[in-house]
Amino acid sequence: MLIPVQPSPYDLWASAEMVNLIRDAQVSRLTLRAAFAINRRVSTTVIGRQARGALADQPLPALQAEVRQRIVFAESVAAGRLARELAPDGAAAREVSSLVDELLRWSP
Fold first, then answer.
1. Which InterPro entries match (predicted)?
2. Which own/partner pairs from 25-33 qualify as long-range (CB within 8 Å, at least 24 positions apart)?
């Protein structure tokens, strides 16, 4: 299970409740694995830089790959296309590819 978390006080606060729900589900689904994915991170903000540290207190891991807040995501939705279709060599495409690669390596 992938849990997207925006670096905001609300998402970080809600992550504790999500952990409780996952722990409850793991009682009947012993192989259920979960991790946080930092999404829409603004690297120039303090909370953006501190998001990973805030998740460190949680019992679930945070993936290393992060997806930052980028204009191309909004532009791609408006165009009805993927961000990597609009900017195949752009930072957003690289970040999403890194996330997918990490998930594919994350085997049970």
1. P-loop_NTPase
2. 31/108, 32/1, 33/1, 33/106, 33/108
